[in-house]
Amino acid sequence: MKMTFDMDKKLLLLADDDIDDTEMFCEALAVVDENIICHCAKNGSEALRILNDLNEKPELIFLDLNMPVMSGWDCLKIINKDQRLQEIPVIMISTSSHQKDLDTTSVLGAHCYFVKPNSFSDLKNVLEVIISNLGTGLKEAIASLEVKSKHIFVK
């Protein structure tokens, strides 16, 4: 069964196995823009299944690094090989700020690496900039966030 959505809506996908992080993320998105539909997956395999079931491609994908069944890295590798999906911007998210994770993000071609903030306010502020610049201005907006935020790292 294919899923459809209202044309005024912005479609996103979040893959994160942490229920609390997912709830906070979705709440922040709702505050930022009420026209966002965020499909949530608990792992990379479920994210790929959702991507396959959607009639419309999401405008942005957020992938947590460490998830059971299929990690964010493995999911990103599959997305990059799929011609239908490879143009969708992907932002890797994690609680880790290890340099090797930042380097892997760059090598695998994600738009950026986003260290999950602990505060709702910080998360909302970062998402506000990202969501308001979906499309052609996304790379520049992320680059400006990197300068201002301790949470964003651009490849």
Overall pLDDT metric: 85
The biggest sheet, with number of strands, parallel, antiparallel or mixed sense and barrel status, is: 6 strands, mixed
β content, as a range?
15-25%
Helix content, binned percent: 40-55%
Total helical segments: 6
Radius of gyration: 14 Å
Our measurement of the CA-to-CA distance between the termini, rounded to an integer number of angstroms, reads 36 Å
Shape: globular
Poorly predicted runs are 1-6
CATH architecture annotation:
3-Layer(aba) Sandwich
Q: What structural class do you assign from the helix and strand content?
A: alpha/beta
What is the oligomeric state here? single chain
CATH class: Alpha Beta
Tally of structural domains: 1
Assign the CATH superfamily: Response regulator
Strands, total number: 6
Can you offer a commentary on this structure?
This protein has 155 residues and is α/β, with parallel strands linked by helices. It has a single domain (10-154), classed as 3-Layer(aba) Sandwich (Rossmann fold). It has six helices and six strands, in the order E-H-E-H-E-H-E-H-E-H-H-E. The chain has helices at 19-32, 44-53, 72-81, 99-108, 120-132, 138-148, and strands at residues 10-15, 36-41, 60-64, 90-94, 112-115, 152-154. A six-stranded mixed β-sheet has the order 2-1-3-4-5-6, with helices on both faces. Helix 1 (19-32) packs across helix 5 and helix 5 runs antiparallel to helix 6 (138-148). The model is unreliable at 1-6 (pLDDT under 50).
